[in-house]
Amino acid sequence: MTDTIDRDAAAQPVKTIMRDTLADVEQHDSVRDVAAELTADEIGAVLVGGPMGPIGVLSERDVVTLVAMGADLDNEQAQAVMTTDLVSADVHDSIADVGRQMIENRVRHVVVRKDDRIVGIVSMRDVLDALLAGV
Amino acid sequence: MTDTIDRDAAAQPVKTIMRDTLADVEQHDSVRDVAAELTADEIGAVLVGGPMGPIGVLSERDVVTLVAMGADLDNEQAQAVMTTDLVSADVHDSIADVGRQMIENRVRHVVVRKDDRIVGIVSMRDVLDALLAGV
């Protein structure tokens, strides 16, 4: 039983694995539209675009919480229910550090900033994939 | 920049990190009830219990897909929409191997079997946490 994890990968900057297709949904889109986007792209969260760039994140978890609350999914707008207090990392932070942020903050997605601008998003799947890649 | 991953943790059997509270919802529960369970427990998936034990898994992703489809969440039963083709591991499989199964099968949860019985479930979060634990 040999199980070696790729230490080099763990130390790489997160920018090497982030997704940089941003603002997948708009602030006035309905939660139903966001669910369709999440399903079509098989992703766990989308960035919500505002007039000046991304203004929040909406995740599968958020949608499920709204379902549990009995919210009106066709009339609830993305901007009203998105998370704006984003867990974020710098493009130069290591993949392992971003993974630790996910565990500590109980989130599956971290937005990636360069200076003060959001330039990408990274998922727990991306982090795990990178850590196991060298095996 | 030092980033060391816990190789010993990666080689541990998955049974050391699995959750063994099973059958959180019943087969006739509605999708809305399942969403409430997922939200209350802050988990990404539940095992669906049948008369003889767990018969499937229902995840956040499944709920979001049903929302996208416009399904009737109060009348759709767990057993009708759950995943029965479960990605499973043996209690003795290593944590790293279970992580690889998640990546390859694009799932966030793997059920854990001992002989032919489901005895637990493990999430991507549990795997990542274990890999980063020794750092």
TrEMBL record, chains A, B:
SMART domains in the record, alphabetically?
CBS (SM00116)
InterPro entries assigned: CBS_dom, CBS_dom_sf, Diverse_CBS-Domain
Matching entries from PANTHER family are given as:
CBS DOMAIN-CONTAINING PROTEIN, CBS DOMAIN-CONTAINING PROTEIN CBSX3, MITOCHONDRIAL
What is this protein identified as?
CBS domain-containing protein
Q: Which domain of life is it from?
A: Bacteria
The yes or no answer to whether the keyword Transmembrane is present is no
TM ranges are none
Q: Which residues form the CBS domain?
A: 82-135
- Record keywords: CBS domain
Q: Which organism is it from?
A: Pseudonocardia thermophila
